[in-house]
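Task: complex structure prediction.
Instruction: return structure tokens for all chains below.
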Amino acid sequence: MDSARNLLEILGLPTNRVLLNIILPVGISFYTFQSLGYVIDVYRGQSPACSSLLTFATFDAFFPQMVAGPIERGRHLIPQLEQTKAFEPAYLHDGLRLILVGFFKKVFVADNCAILANYVFDPQTPLNGYWAVLGALAFAFQIYGDFSGYTDIARGSAKLFGIDLVVNFRFPYFARNPSDFWGRWHISLSTWFRDYLYIPLGGNRGSKWETVRNLGVTMLLAGLWHGASWIFVLWGAYHGALLILYRVVPALRSLGDEDASSHLRGALAMALMWLFTLVGWAIFRSPNLHQFGAWLMALGHWQTALALPWATSFIWLLIHAAPLIFLQILTWRYRDETNLGRLAWPVRGLIYAVMVMLIVSSTAQDTEFIYFQF
Amino acid sequence: MQMKKWFTSAFLFALLLLGLGELGARLFFAADISGRFDYGYSPDAGFDLRPDGTVHLFRAGGRRFHPQSFPRHRPPGTFRVFVIGDSVPRGPSFKGAYPYLLGTELQRHQIQAEAVNLALPGYGARRCQVVLRKALEFEPSLIILHVNDSNKYEDEREYRRSLEFKSWHPRNWPMKIFIFRRLYEAQVEKVFWRLVPDQIRLKFAANDPDAQLAANPDPQEVQARVRLARETTAENVALAREHHVPLLIISQCRLINDGPEAFHFEDHGLDALGRSLAGDHVYWLSMKEVFSHLPNARSYFSDSGHLKQSGHLLMAQALVQKILQDEQQLGLSALKREGKDGGG
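Output:
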């Protein structure tokens, strides 16, 4: 909405909020990208055109994922919609499990971490280094819990109808390098940009500088996809710069090598990437460039007298992030962060019971999904 | 076989764990649960009338009375005093609080007294009224109403919680389950409040009525709560009059430190309220008047409003004086005769 209004203002056109509310569809970014992907696939002959208007309309506006993804491809979703399926209890089991995990991530993890993130990134908050770090950490868990939680709920809802939506997150905070991160975070968007922008631009087939250019352009546009604001341009540019840096600096490249067998090197690579990711989230969460500047400046001030005591808030964050980390460690070996189905049933039962308790008793205010704004 | 198809073992196990948790809580912690979610607005108000004719005090809302019991009917010749109020009359301990000390002081004056401490922490005028209505059923000779002005906010919060808890809305259904509600409140009152600084909690957090109220310091709303608290106190007085039970209002004061040696008292207009309500079997004692003439008054206070045991003793003595001063009107003389007749 805000982006559209800004754009109209730049063009000197009237910006009636009520009218915009009506004409702008929900989840415009996701909806547009999904439709675009379908059109391009059909044009390229990679996917047959859908002959049924009803099936196409269902694909284009499939309710679980229309608002905030995952962005589906026609060749993946349309055949499933065309297929006649009888209901199976397994759909219910898998669907409800995904929905439960999603609610846990959103209600318990994200909404509670949001309390601290909202405080830190409020322009009126006096910050020091401790709070700046705490805020970035809190937002990292908030956005991951919020967005991947939404995706899990969407996938679970679709699964109840026997529809498999694509996996959108795969342990993103365990990534060892930026390329690995984008292969784990918002996978449906990053593969969209890869297939419909980066590769058509030439990908990494040209010279080193052409690859750098292609990466830069792709990430800038990926940043802009989130909204017409300088902060998203900076965020895209930052991630573009990281991708370029890892490609051109051999030491970073070898450290973040996914095939590296050394555990210590792997841990170091993860820690470094996690640090870079945190800075990226600080950019993303800052309402404007000035606020991000204030966040950066705070990292140079570690006097405790400047701000509120932070230690207990850190415990608060830990209480709400630790169960998620535990869940990720538990499912790490299955390469699917929602795949609790392979754990022994008593363990699963215990996890379900604890999740229900934590969701129901969560104290945080109800907050809208972050990606609903895009 | 069919069941296995629809419900997984893990789902059934989770259900079993939750069910066992709830059942265990209800079986083994029944006393703890009892009255837990009344939020102070239960018509029972924490009074348990037993078949043997005794009344036992238990939890009222989330708060516990000091464990006490008394016969349902006032024994002949007994001067039965109920003290209703908040954490100030509740005192640092049962025997260190002025209601208990009042009983012993009255007995020292040869008055067969039964003083019951019905004070609960955080109780303001509205919840005190619920306690008062119940207390009036048990033949009091005198009711002491300790009036404070710092609990109107908590009254409102608990009132909203009680409405929310009773609401039909499906979002409140899980909260009817004890283990969920208890965990929720444990988080709100223990984890939440302690870990996150107030400034953050009040601005960015919680859908609990506490945070909602605190985050909305609308002066008009605050004023309306003050007005409501005062009107309710007046209603409480009228209620006692209606039942022909003498009522003694104690108006709370606050000790304000002006420096290492200097201090003064503030009553927030409660003295004026007490004075205006007094008369026609309603008596009034100003806490400020009890303490303000003492040069070392500060030594009787544990903070700005709460008293140490020495302060409670002083209050008890002041109350005895007041009671003896109005002995005739309070019907003490008649009681003494009643005692003699009843006792043979």
